[in-house]
Amino acid sequence: MNCNKLKDGVKSNRLSSTEYQENFSDIHPPLDNHEALVEADRCYFCHDAPCMTACPTSIDIPMFIRQIATGNKLGSAKTIFDQNILGGMCARVCPTETLCEEACVREVAEGKPVKIGLLQRHATDEAMAAQAQFYERSKTTGKKIAIVGAGPAGLACAHRLSMHGHEATIYDAAEKPGGLNEYGIATYKTVGNFAQTEVDYITEIGGIELKHGKRLGKDMTLDDLKSQYDAIFLAMGLTDVNELSIQGSDINGSEDAVDFISNLRQSDNFSEINIGRKVVVIGGGMTAIDAAIQAKLLGAEDVTICYRRGAEHMNASQYEQELATAKGVIIRHWLQPKTIHSKNGKLSSIEFEYTQSKDGKLTPTGETMAIITDQIFVAIGQRLAMSDFGKSEKIIKFEKGRIAVDSEFKTSIDGVWAGGDCIADGEDLTVSAVAHGRDAAESINRTIQS
After folding, report:
1. Where does a domain end: 381, 400, 425?
2. In a domain, 249, yes or no
3. What CATH number has the domain bearing residue 66?
4. HSE on the CB side for 399, CA within 13 Å?
5. Can you give the C-alpha Rg of the chain in angstroms?
6. pLDDT at 2
7. pLDDT band at residue 314 using 50, 70 and 90 as cut-offs
8. Are residues 255 and 156 in the same domain?
């Protein structure tokens, strides 16, 4: 045990280099050729394919698995990429346990689905390693489209537009493209530099320009873009976070979980990341789970997730909750943060009030409890920053704090489409964002070519 682990406070270098390497290794190691063939042989190749229906991008899952079974891995990859050009990342981060694999006939009959996600990774990794490019640009149309956001939705849209011969310029506020895939996913889910490898693979088709450090509402406006481009696709995701508005929330040691995950994703040396001995994470979604697990992997001794409602209300899937508890994370329910306390200028504890559901509404009980902590991560949701829209905020339609779109992802502003997490029906899933970007591109193509 590293001696630093015995000391109080938030510190770096809690573990040995071997422990960091083991803790942040690939959570789902890839299948080798033999394992892939054995797994592919388990597929019934169902005619009605409930797994395909459950996939937001409608990948022909029986087809790509059959192609793996017959030794045609590049053909399998093309079947995947035809519907989901970010199939490599989705194979790593999709909640397959609640999508395709939950619908698998093997799951229903045996409780052990075909490992669709790992098979998808097996095929797509092979194609990307071979630098196999299956798509070419159509004859240049001269049409230009601005895309705001270089995340899954923006990249998928740009690739499909390029296939149609259009020019796509992607504006992104960050230093690197990839959006959520680069900055917002737990490090152990996408080891190495896969997000950037995938961006390079996607943009290899040509006709896609990336412009970094450009934020809508600060560096350009919708009016600016409308004057320069034939169409606009908004895919900036959720650009702001909900703040914890309780007494003491400004005390040093209370941090935003999104920033913590982003900083960890960009770190080349996990031993330099500061982590407390007793960590509390507030929230019930995937961000809370990812922050909690990674705090534990960095050497925190006690990590507790506190959520204001019951387990059945958590946005994080049952699988992810079980993964957290398997890593030693404690999940406590029906606790609402009330006050953060400090001692000698340092974070010392957080006080919670017990809650209950009464007539369908969350109600405080008046009872309180406290947890000793030296670090708090806040993961209570993200939101769209209205400042991004400037004067356009008055004319673009919103629903529940996000952009309203129709069935073709058109917004209330003529010539402007939107997709991904920033829209009202956004599901905060990479695979759903890819589907939005792909389908919006088809709508844009039909509109500007008519």
Report:
1. 381
2. yes
3. 1.10.1060.10
4. 10
5. 23
6. 39
7. very high
8. no
Q: What is the mean pLDDT of residues 328-336?
A: 98
The domain that holds 165 is classified in CATH as 3.50.50.60
- Structural domain for 49, as ranges: 33-129
- Would you state the structure tokens that stand for residue 306, as one six-digit string? 């506190």
Main-chain dihedrals φ then ψ at residue 87, nearest 5 degrees = -60, -25
What the block records as the tokens of 112 is 């052990």
Provide the token pair at 218: 């600060």
CA distance 85 to 134: 10
Last-in-domain residue among 327, 347, 381: 381
The 10s digit of each residue's pLDDT in 207-224 is 999 999 999 999 999 999
Q: Is residue 135 a part of any domain in this protein?
A: no
Count Cβ atoms below 10 Å from residue 318 Cβ, excluding itself: 12
pLDDT reported for residue 8: 63
All residues at 6 or more sequence positions from 406 whose CB lies less than 8 Å from its CB, including other chains: none
| Nearest residue to 12 via CA among 273, 199, 225 | 273
Please give the pLDDT value at position 1.
34
Q: Residue 390: what pLDDT? A: 79
Q: How many domains does the chain have?
A: 3
Asked whether residue 257 falls in the same domain as residue 301, the answer is yes
Nearest to 10 by CA among 284, 307, 280: 280
The pLDDT value given to residue 6: 36
341-348 long-range CB contacts below 8 Å, 24 or more apart? Answer: 341/248, 341/370, 342/248, 342/251, 342/253, 345/252, 346/9, 346/252, 346/253, 346/374, 347/251, 347/252, 347/253, 347/254, 347/373, 347/374, 347/375, 347/376, 348/372, 348/373, 348/374
What are the Cα distances from residue 259, in Å, to 83, 254, 295?
Answer: 32, 12, 13
Decide if 138 is inside a domain.
no
Separation CA 437–CA 235 (nearest Å): 8
Cα–Cα distance between 96 and 132 in angstroms, integer? 26
The vertex-335 CA angle with 331 and 340, nearest 5°, equals 105
Model confidence, pTM: 0.94
Instruction: Tell me, yes or no, whether 284 and 357 share the same domain.
Output: yes
In a domain, 60, yes or no: yes
Q: Can you point out the beta strands (E) in 33-111?
A: none
Q: Are residues 115 and 84 in the same domain?
A: yes
- DSSP 8-state code for residue 410: B
The reply to whether 327 and 199 lie within a common domain is no
Same domain? For 293 and 162 the reply is: no
Q: What mean pLDDT comes out for the span 392-410?
A: 91
CA–CA dist 208, 156 (Å, integer): 11
